[in-house]
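Please, structure for the following, as tokens.
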Amino acid sequence: MSHFKTSQLVRSLTLAALLAAPLFGAGQAHATDGVSAQGITFTAEQAYPEGIAWHPAQKVFFVSSVHKGTIGKVSPQGVYTPFIQDAQLVASAGLALDAKRNLLWVAIGDLGASTRSSPATAYKLAAVAAYDATTGQRRAYHDLSGLVEGGHFANDLAVDAAGNVYITDSFSPVIYRVDAKGQASVFAQSDLFKGEGFNLNGIVAHPDGYLLVNKYNSGEIFRISTRNGADIQRVNLPEAVKGADGMLMRDTTHLVVVQNAGNDQVTELVSTDGWKSATLQPARKTAFSFPTTATQVGQDIYVMNSRLDTLLAKDAPKVSEYLLQKY
């Protein structure tokens, strides 16, 4: 994909999303369109967090940063603290906590909107790093960009029970894998993943041995065997889930999908046939613009209202207040 087409798509996404007013205080947030929501508000100076992961032992949320790369912690009281500041984190996107191994995995890319963006990395970087979830020390770093030609943006990632990590690339039609031994490879590659602009995005690992991956621009969801990356099946849906971003398995039959690109809502999918097909539950709007990812805390779901539209639109007022919306 050319730099022009990618930049054009980023601009079009910002126009599709609603610009939001700043958040004030914690507890209940009120958007300009009248939507109100319970959740946790926090301030992080123009961080623009995209990914989120809950650490049950530490009782904190890890949040990423598209603008600065820093990984921060957010307390249930809404206090933000920088946690990992690594020069390799050009722009941090999806997060995945491997609680068994106490590792925080980070998808790393560059949409040209980071304080660390450069011609060498903008729309060209796909990398993944692992950090000790207690100390923040880097345990691994893999530059995946050289595994396949084309544009790159490592967007989201998932960890399976064996410790294998799967990473989506929104600008190349591939899913990467870093296995438990630290070997990086192209796990799945298909013309089904091709398209204009942002393609593969959210990904989860199902305990029954397959991945569920969404395609942002078309609203498709794919079921991919973890034993054979060529075994790719399209999940039969009653309608497309366009603007699908991060996903969360509530349990083996319920999948939460966060949607933006002007949709700004959370949709739950239900499957009773092993994700050969799924039905859609009524969507719920988010209080603020550009929700991206979700994490589970007990029975509650928290969705990141990232407000990325205000970062990607050059003339929009920049913001530093964000909402973890509770569902």
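The mean pLDDT is 91. The first strand starts at residue 27 and ends at 30.
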